[in-house]
């Protein structure tokens, strides 16, 4: 059994499915080449998502599509930020204060792409809000990595000490991250309850799916940002779901990142602090809620999902819902640094990184599959479920997987031919090679009203 198939079987075992026959996974050449088996994570997570889509197709009376792994499409989708162009210009993926910095006793990695994260990071290090990179670098060099990590946590900033793999595996955080299946699925309800629209719990109540979009009629509330969550909800939208992304109006968004990951969705702005009733109305008629908040954050905002029997609650977090770091913020690059991946892919003198943000993308496709299989299970018993992935759990799988290649060639860049163009924006083509393009490009940010529509396919980019 190849390593990609091992991930497929780990997913199937975790969600209670019988093992399926192996899907052909072509050799990638130097695509996504790394010491760790990144190609296996990428291909395996795509197979998991494609196979779940076929299970939905079968349940709704549609012919199977099969799962075809296209190495160019997979590597393009996983490295989408390297292919994105707007007006011919490439984005800057990381801000000035995001990256590796030498500390007094090693390295730390920081993330400050959002203005509020930059402000918190500077405050954590007792630097002025207008602090420049030179002062920041000097300050980090004068502090120990653990001091920086702790100060950032207190301030709500994002920084991690670069650890060795052995340090991570032997730590309480590492042990928590390595426990459980790649996708955790649990029942939320002890018995089926009432649901809007007479009975949206059944697949038949969702209407007749189109032959290309097996999730036609499924309503998904998307409360995710950055990458892993948006990748999952973008794939659900590709498969026909009506995905309404909800963002708080008081937080900034990175324009190019939104354009790269919001295809096929609608976008609205809603402040849960003042518009909780409007959000509850959306939630009452939703089939799926996908969140990227830290565990407990949504409940603290006043949202009580237990009032909605039959709801599929899907979540992605950096460190997992349990364990000592459950409440900490984090991103793909930060998890790589803390878990030892940065040193596996680099050296003590210069930490490295995976050839793509594979923890984000892989976790996103795994979450997509978990949502679809939870919908299928709900159609059988009427019971809602929680579906959880974490970047740290995906990192633990990658670190434990066999077939390391320390002498790998340099990773080839994503193939520009595996892209789609709308107006002046170029994005990676959908990773599921046997489905058409997304129904529409990313809409203008916040352009939709906060309500469900009967025929979202009528919406087109202005």
UniProtKB/TrEMBL annotation:
<dbReference type="InterPro" id="IPR050509">
    <property type="entry name" value="CoA-transferase_III"/>
</dbReference>
<dbReference type="Pfam" id="PF02515">
    <property type="entry name" value="CoA_transf_3"/>
</dbReference>
<feature type="region of interest" description="Disordered">
    <location>
        <begin position="402"/>
        <end position="421"/>
    </location>
</feature>
<keyword id="KW-0808">Transferase</keyword>
<dbReference type="GO" id="GO:0016740">
    <property type="term" value="F:transferase activity"/>
</dbReference>
<feature type="region of interest" description="Disordered">
    <location>
        <begin position="171"/>
        <end position="197"/>
    </location>
</feature>
<dbReference type="InterPro" id="IPR023606">
    <property type="entry name" value="CoA-Trfase_III_dom_1_sf"/>
</dbReference>
<protein>
    <submittedName>
        <fullName>CoA transferase</fullName>
    </submittedName>
</protein>
<dbReference type="InterPro" id="IPR003673">
    <property type="entry name" value="CoA-Trfase_fam_III"/>
</dbReference>
């Amino acid at each position: 059994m190849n390593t990609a198939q091992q991930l497929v079987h780990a997913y199937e075992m975790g969600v209670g499915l019988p093992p399926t026959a192996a899907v052909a996974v072509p050799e990638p050449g130097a695509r996504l080449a790394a010491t760790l088996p990144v190609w296996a994570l990428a291909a395996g997570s795509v197979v998991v998502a494609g196979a779940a889509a076929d299970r939905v197709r079968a349940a709704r009376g549609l012919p199977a599509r099969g799962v075809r792994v296209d190495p160019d499409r997979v590597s393009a989708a996983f490295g989408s930020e390297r292919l994105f162009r707007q007006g011919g210009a490439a984005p800057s993926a990381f801000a000035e204060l995001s990256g590796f910095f030498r500390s007094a006793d090693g390295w730390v990695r920081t993330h400050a792409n959002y203005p509020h994260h930059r402000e918190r990071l500077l405050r954590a290090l007792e630097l002025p809000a207008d602090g420049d990179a030179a002062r920041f670098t000097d300050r980090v060099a004068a502090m120990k990595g653990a001091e920086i990590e702790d100060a950032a946590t207190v301030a709500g900033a994002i920084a991690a000490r670069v650890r060795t793999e052995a340090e991570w595996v032997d730590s309480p955080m590492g042990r928590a991250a390595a426990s459980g299946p790649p996708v955790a699925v649990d029942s939320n309800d002890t018995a089926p309850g009432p649901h809007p629209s007479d009975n949206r719990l059944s697949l038949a109540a969702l209407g007749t799916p189109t032959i290309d979009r097996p999730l036609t009629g499924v309503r998904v509330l998307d409360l995710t940002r950055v990458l892993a969550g948006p990748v999952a909800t973008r794939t659900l939208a590709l498969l026909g779901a009506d995905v309404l992304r909800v963002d708080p109006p008081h937080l900034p968004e990175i324009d190019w990142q939104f354009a790269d990951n919001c295809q096929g969705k609608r976008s609205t702005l809603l402040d849960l602090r003042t518009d909780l009733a409007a959000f509850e109305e959306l939630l009452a008629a939703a089939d799926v809620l996908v969140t990227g908040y830290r565990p407990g954050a949504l409940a603290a905002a006043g949202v009580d999902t237990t009032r909605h029997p039959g709801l599929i609650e899907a979540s992605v977090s950096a460190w997992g819902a349990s364990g000592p770091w459950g409440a900490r913020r984090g991103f793909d690059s930060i998890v790589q640094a803390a878990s030892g991946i940065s040193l596996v892919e680099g050296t003590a003198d210069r930490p490295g990184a995976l050839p793509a943000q594979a923890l984000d993308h892989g976790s996103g496709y795994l979450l997509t599959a978990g949502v679809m299989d939870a919908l299928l299970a709900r159609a059988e018993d009427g019971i809602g479920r929680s579906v959880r992935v974490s970047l740290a759990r995906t990192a633990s799988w990658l670190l434990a997987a066999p077939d390391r290649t320390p002498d790998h060639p340099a990773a080839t860049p994503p193939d520009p031919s595996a892209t789609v163009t709308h107006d002046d924006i170029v994005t990676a083509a959908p990773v599921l090679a046997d489905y058409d393009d997304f129904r529409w490009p990313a809409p203008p940010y916040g352009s939709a009203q906060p309500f469900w529509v009967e025929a979202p396919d009528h919406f087109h980019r202005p």
